[in-house]
Amino acid sequence: MRMLSAALALAAAIGFSAAATAQDYPTRPITMVVPFAAGGPTDTVARLVAESMSKTLGQQVIVENVGGAGGTRGAGQVAKAAPDGYTILLHHIGQATAATLYRKLPYNPATDFEAVGLVTAVPMTMIGKPGFAPKTMAEAVDFVKANKDKVTYGNAGVGSASHLCGMLFMSSIGTQMTTVPYQGTGPAMNDLVGGQIDLMCDQTTNTTGQIKGGKVKAYAVTTKDHVKSLPDLPTMQESGLKDFEVAVWHGIYAPKGTPKAIVDKLNAALDVALNDPKVVARFADLGTEPEPKDRRSPAFHKDFVIAEIAKWKPVIQSAGVYAD
Question: What domains are there in the chain, each with its CATH number?
């Protein structure tokens, strides 16, 4: 009985301590891991959100870029971090596709994180080098089919958004291109602008400025609706690619076991950020917008990730692309 009483007292003390810690949270800076290089589209989203969340939480949210292995290195680091709310992850669609893409993934995207909330779903654009011959997306499809051994497609590596878009494109037209993987979208974009590669599909957060500046040739957006910042650009479906739709959604995660009270505080701060006029305006400049209120909750986010894993699994399996 004495042992049982002691155990119950210890459990109560631990519970009280955890509750007190959650109530005081945060008392020091928070690290937001972005599993990609600085300057990329996901990094841009993270820094906008982190700046606003810092004001709400009363502590600085510091963005740390931990690139490598298609985003799995940074995600794995957060999965193993202490579940105290001081190390969080901002990741894109790769959080779901990694479950199928990687044979030896050291974490489970569906169970090793606490979902905090969805941030934004960024449209993508199919773009070509400045002197690429095709004038429209339909012409580009015909050109690729006729010159499949010569056309080069750049991406940011296995598991990246540009890689996924490329896989879906090649699957849709039934033709493979020569793919050229890079260590991030920055160097891939540099080579596209310089004419070293022919095509690339990337997020509007990374392409809008290049398109408006006339540095690349824009063909289509990958969403079912037109993008406000690029109103004259047709959709892939309008260009003849039926059911071609992909947006790169972003979400915030905490390690599994992070107290609900802390997750709720992070979610509340995210909600404020996504209503911040500065964030909304900057997102609009980049061709995207905050997720609607009903898609920002931890519960919706958790279910959404599971659904996305199921959605992309057959696409990846049919392409036969895997990484160790």
Answer: 2-122+248-319 (3.40.190.150), 124-221 (3.40.190.10)
